[in-house]
Amino acid sequence: MNDQTLFSIFFSAMVVNNFTLAMFLGLCPFMGVSARVETALRMGLANIFVLVLTALSVWVLNTYILETVPYLRIISFIIVIASLVQIVEMAVKKLSPTLFRQLGIFLPLMTTNCAILGLAIFQTNRGYGFLQGLTFAVGAGLGLTLALVLMASIRESLEFSDIPGIAKGTGLVLIIAGILSLAFMGFAGLL
Amino acid sequence: MRTTTPSQDFIRGIWDENPVLVQMLGLCPALAVTNSVKNALAMSAATFFVICCSSVLVSSCKRFIPNEVRISAYILVIATFVTLADMLLQAYAPVQHKELGAFMALIVVNCMILGRQEAFASKNNPFRSLLDAVGTGIGFTIALLMMGGFREILGTGAFLEYSLFGPNFEPWVIMVLPAGGFLTLGFILLAMGYAEHRKKANEIVNEQVKTAL
């Protein structure tokens, strides 16, 4: 068991050890969906939802099943995440077809998002309990959303500036991400 | 339908379609574990093992995998080999295993591996799939070693922990921190963009010279 306070878990996951900018998790949506603030925000919210569901199911798996078969950990996590994403996809399609259309391909792609599996593995390695795991998931999700929205707003305003031809595309995004990551290092002394 | 030769399958992944530098796949491990050459090597070796084994298995079993559940089947095959690699590394190189930590398990969600299964191994015979996997694996290793080399030399003034510049070198600490990963890859991509730009400009000039003559 781990005896970190809930606040420190939340704050650490959200800014100090931000999933995207300090731990390089969830880079695919970070590069792919960060061109518009609105889509970035929606993607972030969908991520929070799946992260919370994953944290709950991983807690159940860890407490009741994986005690006896630790070597099945990676395989069982990935199966649970894949089925979870499938269920969420069906639910969203049924309940809100508009949202389903807006999220498009990025909803099914969430299965191979490292942030989700990363959360499951960190939660297990650090021995978080039920509430701690839940707080960790919400904090990590908010951190992802924060990074996505920041990146999207920078890219939106870059659209009308004069960029040298060789810097167009991923190279520039990566350098901006590097500068953002430098800024987030300023939080490192807080905890 | 396709007209590539086996040697093209092999060469393609190494540089022209380098998974990290050109296709932008598998960025998470490329950025996260390249703060030293040693970690980069361990990560490349593990990924190499996983991509080769799963490519061969997927292409030998392609007849038995129904089309509707193929992605889940590939993920399961990959997860099995990642578990194996994880246990092997833990047994033979426990220090490296600890350094890589969660990123060892995260090889499962490396899009590069799943991408090769879907794009190549599911349509070709085991031998050519193996060639393709080895090529892609070498390309991944080159990219990781390049990043790891830059970051370790600039960040600590050493290569594989041998000091290069003597005690007077002031290390660029930023390079071994997370921000350094983003900046290194960003600058490598800018340099590649510049090289591409120069090549095109040269071709245009050559064209013009030819027509003038």
Walk me through what this model shows:
The complex is a heterodimer of chains A (191) and B (213). The mean pLDDT of chain A is 86. Chain A is globular, with a radius of gyration of 17 Å. Chain A has helices at residues 6-16, 27-32, 37-65, 73-95, 97-103, 114-125, 130-158, 170-185. Chain A has one domain (6-12, 19-185). With 191 residues, chain A is mainly α. Chain B has 213 residues and is mostly helical. Chain B has helices spanning 6-12, 27-32, 37-60, 70-92, 94-100, 102-105, 111-121, 126-156, 178-212; strands at residues 158-159, 162-163. In chain B, α1 (6-12) runs parallel beside α8, α4 (70-92) crosses α5 and α4 crosses α7 (111-121). In chain B, 69% of the residues lie in helices and 2% in strands. Chain B has one domain. Classes of the chains: A mainly alpha (191), B mainly alpha (213).
List keywords for this structure.
heterodimer, A: 191 residues, mainly alpha, B: 213 residues, 9 helices, 2 strands, 2% strand
Largest Cβ-defined interface: A-B, 41 and 40 residues
First CA to last CA of chain A: what distance? 20 Å
- Major sheet summary line of chain B: 2 strands, antiparallel
Beta-strand percent range of chain B: under 5%
H/E element sequence of chain A:
HHHHHHHH
Number of domains of chain A: 1
Q: Which ranges of chain A are low-confidence, i.e. pLDDT below 50, for 5 or more consecutive residues?
A: none
**Shape verdict of chain B:** flat
**What level of helicity do the residues of chain A show?**
55-70%
Total helix count of chain A? 8
Going by helix content, strand content and strand pairing, the class of chain B is mainly alpha
DSSP strand content of chain A:
under 5%
Number of domains of chain B: 1
Radius of gyration of chain A: 17 Å
* C-alpha geometry of chain A: globular
Query: What is the CA-CA span between the terminal residues of chain B?
Result: 41 Å
Give the rounded overall mean pLDDT of chain B: 88
What is the ordering of alpha helices and beta strands of chain B?
HHHHHHHHEEH
Spans of at least 5 consecutive residues with low confidence of chain B: none
Oligomer: heterodimer
What composes the largest sheet of chain A? none
